[in-house]
Amino acid sequence: MADAASRLSALTEELIGAPPPVRIRAWDGSTAGPAEGPTLVIRHRRALRRFLWKPGELGLVRAWVAGEIDVEGDLYTVLDRLAQFIWDRGEEAEAAAKHPALDPRLRSAAKSLVRIAGAWPPPPPPAEEIRGRHGSRHTKRRDKQAISHHYDVGNDFYEMVLGPSMVYSCAYWDDAPGFTLEDAQRAKLDLVCRKLELKEGERLLDVGCGWGSMALHAAREYGARVTGVTLSREQAVFARKRIAEEGLTDRIDIRVQDYRDVKDGPYDAISSIGMAEHVGMVRYREYADDLYALLKPGGRLLNHQIGRRPMVNDEAYEIDAFIDSYVFPDGELAPVGKTLATLEEAGFEARDVQALREHYALTLRRWVANLEAHWRDAVRATSPGRARVWRLYMAASALSFEHNKIGVNQILAVKPPEGGRPVTALRELNWR
């Protein structure tokens, strides 16, 4: 096909009413669009067929994961410039594909795209896309499958991305010169411990303990006795090895266990860092009730959780297709107000809410830089498709935090003690 890039550029302009915001280079070597800035590379016509069969985000993501489209230049710039087309126009195209008679313009554009894209049938989804989910969301069996898809992709891969801290949640940044990702993650772990007011010998339950970083910090620095639970066997193996190397097996117990099966309370404190996003709204009150029951009176909960912006009609909220299919299967985000209300309904007293949105954007950019710096090794540790999934999801998430599309919040809540809190506990919070 001669000059595929110009034809695609003209088709894009027909769809969005403006020239493409980035340069396009097609599989035939042709180029079109602005000479300056990054280039969107379409390596194969198969990418267009994916978009025809799944208009909107999912079709484009499948092409990205399969390596049929790529970016030359700054990925963040391309994502920023394409955002309107990928998300807004993609939704419009998806609706038109379901009801083509409603929009003749989009129907015409789809026919033109068919002529450029070539023969059918649609390509199969890349192997990294989760399939075969059965039963209702957020049963114990289905949650275990979802967690395994995301976390059991190789500890070596995560070490390259996360760095020595092995903390897979928002760091807590300082503008001091030379402040590293490891410094910021250590600062976040210490922030959590100080909010929980951990003391020597107190029992801490770390829900969704990951690779054991929070458990290690709480036991080593504060003398806590920690129980960590995770559904990922690979995480548990890694965490137990770290704990043994530091000689803390007498203080830390790591279990492969669903939080709903923990029955050995009461605990003095509970940390839940980046785990509640997996719970699901249908189970969130159950989650709050279970944690409340596991705390002693006066015990503290630190809930660290990504939240989305509220919608006018919140019942219309839909899970992001890319995230659900490739990154966090069955993951759901709730507005911070809804999370806070559910914890209060379960009986907790909210003591503090701290927003860390900008901190997560910085964290994600560091993770992307780590992945890019170790790209060949990361591909060998997993697969080219998996590495491409993580690069796209982390870069897009960084932009979402920067543009206030999503946020992340730490909620400190207390199980009220009998007779109320003593005056000494009402002093001004001092962890800022």
Automatic annotation (TrEMBL):
GO terms for biological process: lipid biosynthetic process; methylation. SMART domains: PKS_MT. Residues 157-399 form the Polyketide synthase-like methyltransferase domain. Keywords: Lipid metabolism, Methyltransferase, S-adenosyl-L-methionine, Transferase. Residues 117-145 are annotated as: Disordered. Transmembrane segments: none annotated. Residues 133-143 have a biased composition (Basic residues). GO terms for molecular function: methyltransferase activity. Belongs to the CFA/CMAS family. This is Class I SAM-dependent methyltransferase. It comes from Streptomyces montanisoli.
